[in-house]
Amino acid sequence: MTASTEARETALLAAQAAADKLATDVAIVDVSERLAITDAFVLASAPNERQVQAIVDEVEERLRQHGVKPVRREGVAEARWVLLDFVDVVVHVQHAEERAYYALERLWKDCPTIPFVDRAALQGDGAGTGTATLSADDVDPASADPTPLAPEPADEGTAGGTPVEDEGPSASEAAGR
């Protein structure tokens, strides 16, 4: 038996709400075959307690808008590992340290996952996805080949895509010494 359609939809809503508040490593695990008390776990991480709380608030608000309210909340005061129980779906929002230590994905590795892709990644904005969007300006005008140039990775020597002046001597000054 797999998670019900309603549980899958609730889990996907919760996962998207978490992703919208910049949660990291968002995953959905279908635990319906192993647990009788719930169908799915939504797992999300955040780098600090304030972000954990922001994610929790957004998940609760988004699901409340769809008529789903939590029956239990745990860990809100500490905001290191917050559990929101929506009966069919249990949302775990963990501080990154707790996520690494307890490794819930490893504990439930025998269970299938429910595919989740952040809406922002689908829109192709490139923000936070590690991909870049190419424009017409990225085509090499000297080339007869209209293939776009690959975007250059941002490094510490650039600020907003423009080179940053080095405070040290220029190459010509250094050669004259």
Radius of gyration: 23 Å
Succession of helices and strands: HEEHEEEHHHEEH
Helix run count:
6
Mean pLDDT reading: 80
In the predicted model, the low-confidence regions spanning at least 5 consecutive residues are 126-152, 154-168, 170-177
Structural class: alpha+beta
Q: Please state the overall shape, judged from the principal axes of the Cα atoms.
A: globular
The portion of residues forming beta strands comes to 15-25%
Largest beta-sheet details: 5 strands, mixed
Helix content: 25-40%
What's this, in brief?
With 177 residues, this protein is of the alpha+beta class.
Structural overview:
This protein is of the alpha+beta class and 177 residues long. 30% of the residues lie in helices and 19% in strands. The chain is built from six helices and seven strands. The chain has a five-stranded mixed beta sheet. Strands 6-7 form a two-stranded antiparallel sheet. Strand 4 and strand 5 form a beta hairpin. The radius of gyration is 23 Å and the shape is globular. The C terminus is likely disordered.
